[in-house]
UniProtKB/TrEMBL annotation:
GO terms for biological process: proteolysis. One of its GO terms (cellular component) is extracellular space. It comes from the Eukaryota. SUPFAM superfamilies: Zn-dependent exopeptidases. Pfam families: Peptidase_M14 (PF00246). The lineage of its organism: Eukaryota, Metazoa, Chordata, Craniata, Vertebrata. This is CPXM1 carboxypeptidase. Residues 1-131 form the Peptidase M14 domain. InterPro entries: CARBOXYPEPT_ZN_2, Peptidase_M14, Peptidase_M14_domain. The gene is Cpxm1. It comes from Anhinga anhinga.
């Protein structure tokens, strides 16, 4: 139905009260901290950011669905994926958080920004509703 018809949070919360849309580990901050400390790429490779150890603890607030995705990613180390959000016409880029918490529309490009923009454009222009 889209968020304007059904409520923006419909379907995001599990029975345990976990928002699946925001349950994955924050890898953005780890990368930005490493960049700010000149650790990229020699000491902190930016092509693979491991799941933080604290996130794998048994008492971490991680939904079973999120744990399953992490296990799947570790078994099959793919290099490109797509996530389909039902009901919305949107393309979200990797590392789409902002470095500055209060600055909602801050650009946070990655080294692959050109590739992501190209993929988004191909997808959007192939979708009649988006085009």
């Amino acid at each position: 139905q889209g968020s304007e018809l059904s409520g923006w949070a419909t379907g995001r919360w599990t029975y345990e009260g976990i928002d699946l849309n925001h349950n994955f580990a924050d890898l953005n901050t780890a990368l930005w901290d490493a960049e700010d400390n000149d650790l990229v790429p020699h000491e902190f490779p930016n092509h693979y950011i491991p799941i933080p150890e604290y996130y794998t603890f048994a008492n971490a607030t991680v939904a079973p669905e999120t744990r399953a995705v992490i296990d799947w990613m570790q078994r099959y180390p793919f290099v490109l994926s797509a996530n389909l959000h039902g009901g919305e016409l949107v393309v979200t880029y990797p590392f789409d958080m902002t470095r500055t918490y209060w600055k909602a529309q801050e650009l946070t490009p990655t080294a692959d920004d050109g590739v992501f923009r190209w993929l988004a454009t191909v997808y959007a222009t192939s979708n009649l509703a988006m085009a």
